[in-house]
Amino acid sequence: MPTKRSGPLVGKCPKCGNNIVLKKSFYGCSNYPECKFTLAEHFF
Known about the structure:
Elements: E1 9-12, E2 19-22, E3 26-29, E4 38-40
Antiparallel strand pairs: 1-2, 2-3, 3-4
């Protein structure tokens, strides 16, 4: 089954190994909702 995407790929999820993609205002795992790993788009 292909993973869901919603933006450019930026790396691999450290929790499950799927792709990290840019969502609207944050980076999230393409395997959401099974994996809920996220990163803020801007740290400051």
